């Protein structure tokens, strides 16, 4: 009886190890198990690239064009860190008065260019396109500034909660503070 239990135990063991990827090989009245050779990797692990955030990004807004009441600019960000970081998506943006109080801002995302993952090397740059109007809309006054004039802006990088502080010297933004913004792209 003991031999039968032992023999059944060896068969079960052999089947279990075979099912787990090991080969069972009987040898002269006993059962030996050899495992598969270990796998080794000669390539180093890929470095982990962190997300670009307000702690490593420096930002600025630069005007690019104007005409017929339309204003265009770019929000540039530069990786000021010592390591690469990734950036993907749209920035948040809030216009601010000199005392940091909010000035009406309605940020609207545009699809072109859309979000694409970017890796910014140290000192690498990315840009987002901006468009706004200085022509009063709706009930906005035509004999004075259409909205309070901003002096600063707070821009929040994609997937971050902390803002970068920027200068805004581009006058009031009409249409209730409507600014169109694209996703970031390589600059």
Automatic annotation (TrEMBL):
**DUF4232 domain span:** 52-184
Q: Does the keyword Signal apply?
A: yes
Q: Which residues belong to the signal peptide in this entry?
A: 1-24
Give yes or no: UniProt keyword Mitochondrion. no
Q: Which UniProt keywords apply?
A: Signal
Organism, scientific name: Lentzea tibetensis
**Pfam families in alphabetical order:** DUF4232
Q: What is the official name of this protein in its record?
A: DUF4232 domain-containing protein
InterPro entries reported for this sequence: DUF4232
Tree of life domain: Bacteria
């Amino acid at each position: 009886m003991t031999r039968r239990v032992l023999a059944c135990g060896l068969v079960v063991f052999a089947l279990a190890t075979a099912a787990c990827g090991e080969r069972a090989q009987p040898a002269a009245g006993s059962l030996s198990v050899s495992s598969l050779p270990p796998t080794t990797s000669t390539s180093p692990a890929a470095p982990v690239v962190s997300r670009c955030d307000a702690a490593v990004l420096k930002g600025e807004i630069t005007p690019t064009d104007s005409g017929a009441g339309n204003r265009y600019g770019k929000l540039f960000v530069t990786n000021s860190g010592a390591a690469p970081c990734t950036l993907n998506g749209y920035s948040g943006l809030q216009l601010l008065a000199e005392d940091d109080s909010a000035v009406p801002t309605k940020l609207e995302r545009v699809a072109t260019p859309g979000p694409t993952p970017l890796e910014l090397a140290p000192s690498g740059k990315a840009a987002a396109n901006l468009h706004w109007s200085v022509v009063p809309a709706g009930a906005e006054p035509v004999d004075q500034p259409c909205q309070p004039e901003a002096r600063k802006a707070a821009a929040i990088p994609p997937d971050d909660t902390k803002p970068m502080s920027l200068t805004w010297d581009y006058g009031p933004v009409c249409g209730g503070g409507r600014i169109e913004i694209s996703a970031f792209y390589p600059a």
